[in-house]
Design a protein that fits this description.
single chain, about 180 residues, alpha/beta, four-stranded parallel β-sheet, 10 helices, 4 strands, globular
């Protein structure tokens, strides 16, 4: 259906997104490859805390770069939750994300102040040196170790299917039988 829509000119790109576990992204890429398909883009969390817990940066990003798939980095500040750790500033968060090999860094702008902050981060961005990058990672290492400041990875509060399990459809009979056995 998506391929037909692209062929008809209704869509240009096909991608997927998620933020729970990088292994799910790798599985999506593997299944696509096994079926002779390649995604155009993948959206995932890329932030200064991600590097320490269920890391999309370490696990998925290299594969996307290798396959020349567009990288859409999201949750650079995890909806502001990372800032509550008191370890990094908004500009540091944005600079870290901009330093990664992304096609785009998506940041929420819900006020003029936040928009100005994002524009300032872009204007002041310079590629981070290895020591600068390591210093940012060192600042967040301890607080990021359990994913506490990335609740989209560690809880169901960001999972729509947790509140709407009917969206997943019926369990296949074979799975139901295994669970009852």
């Amino acid at each position: 259906m998506l391929l037909e829509a692209r062929k008809a000119g209704k869509i240009r790109y096909i991608g997927f997104t998620g933020h729970k576990d990088p292994r799910i992204h790798l599985h999506m890429l593997e299944v696509a490859r096994e079926n002779g398909f390649s995604f155009d883009t993948v959206q995932m969390p890329l932030n200064v805390m991600d590097a320490h817990y269920r890391s999309f940066e370490k696990i998925v990003l290299p594969e996307l770069v290798k396959q020349n798939i567009g990288v859409l980095g999201m949750k650079s500040m995890a909806n502001g939750i990372i800032l509550k750790s008191g370890t990094v500033t908004p500009v540091e968060c944005l600079h870290y994300a901009l330093n990664l090999p992304t096609s785009v860094v998506i940041t929420g702008c819900d006020s003029m102040e936040v928009l100005d902050q994002a524009v300032d981060a872009v204007h002041t961005f310079r590629p981070l040196s290895v020591p600068q990058r390591e210093a940012l990672l060192a600042k967040t290492r301890a607080v990021a170790a359990r994913g506490e400041f990335e609740p989209f990875k560690t809880s169901s509060i960001f999972d729509s299917t947790a509140t709407h399990p009917e969206w997943l459809g019926e369990e296949p009979q074979s799975v139901r039988n295994m669970m009852l056995a």
